């Protein structure tokens, strides 16, 4: 979590929803790297969540230039990415190293949605700004999975299942990359298989 010294600056929003005005609440556009619970009043550090009177909206994750909201809940079961034989005009990456350069999750999801993707449709059911994360995004989130899952549990969300999750990053004409949330294992598989989905959005 962020260092206490980060609290003593202008990045801290008003604590008007807290019963203790000394508790730091960050603006989502100026918070330091870390994992937070996002509410109408700002970003709360998970250790102070018991004092918050707001309802959690999502988990906020910040690491360098990556600023993402993580949905409190994902799919209850595996979802098919695309029906077998459906073609999509997505850039293809023939290795994990190359695939990690994909930063077009929102755009990928729009393409998948138009092709009838159930996984993309699930993400969009959360709102138009939500999308299926790229392999790079899921990899970065998984590296901090313990904090993310703890924050989700604290605020009443659901930790990501220890199962395979689809990403929007394309491998070839029939396959997309996936990530195992437990160990960070990454590979690709056929698009008509079913895997878990956790929507994200950028801010």
Question: What features would you describe in this structure?
Answer:
The chain is α+β, with helices and mostly antiparallel strands. It is 19% helix and 24% strand. The strands form 3 sheets. The protein has a 7-stranded antiparallel beta sheet, with helices on one face. The chain has a 3-stranded antiparallel beta sheet with strand order 8-9-10. A two-stranded antiparallel sheet has the order 7-11. A hairpin with a 2-residue loop joins strand 5 and strand 6. The two termini are 19 Å apart.
Keywords, please?
alpha+beta; 203 residues; 3-stranded antiparallel β-sheet; 7-stranded antiparallel β-sheet
The gist of it:
The chain has 203 residues and is of the alpha+beta class. The protein has helices spanning 96-99, 105-114, 118-124, 135-142, 145-154; strands at residues 12-13, 25-26, 34-39, 42-44, 58-63, 66-70, 79-80, 164-170, 175-180, 186-190, 194-195, 200-202. The chain contains five helices and twelve strands.
Topology, element by element:
Elements: E1 12-13, E2 25-26, E3 34-39, E4 42-44, E5 58-63, E6 66-70, E7 79-80, H1 96-99, H2 105-114, H3 118-124, H4 135-142, H5 145-154, E8 164-170, E9 175-180, E10 186-190, E11 194-195, E12 200-202
Antiparallel strand pairs: 1-2, 2-4, 3-4, 3-5, 5-6, 6-12, 7-11, 8-9, 9-10
Helix pairs in contact: 2-3
């Amino acid at each position: 979590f962020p260092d206490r010294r980060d609290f003593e600056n202008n990045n801290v929003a008003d604590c008007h929803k807290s019963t203790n005005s000394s508790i730091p609440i960050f603006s989502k556009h100026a918070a330091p790297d870390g994992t937070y619970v996002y509410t109408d009043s700002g970003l709360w550090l998970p250790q102070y969540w018991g004092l918050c009177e707001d309802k959690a909206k999502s988990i906020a994750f910040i690491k360098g230039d990556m600023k993402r909201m993580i949905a409190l809940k994902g799919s209850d079961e595996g979802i098919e990415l695309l029906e077998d034989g459906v073609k999509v005009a997505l850039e293809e990456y023939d290795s994990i190293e190359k695939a990690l350069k994909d930063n077009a999750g929102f755009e990928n999801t729009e393409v998948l949605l138009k092709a009838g993707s159930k996984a993309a449709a699930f993400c969009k059911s959360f709102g138009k700004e939500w999308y299926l994360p790229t392999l790079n995004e899921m990899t970065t989130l998984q590296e901090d999975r313990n904090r993310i899952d703890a924050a989700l549990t604290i605020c009443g969300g659901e930790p990501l299942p220890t199962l395979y999750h689809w990403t929007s990053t394309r491998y070839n004409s029939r396959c997309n990359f996936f990530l195992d949330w437990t160990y960070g294992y990454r590979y690709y598989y056929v698009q008509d298989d079913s895997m878990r989905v956790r929507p994200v959005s950028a801010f």
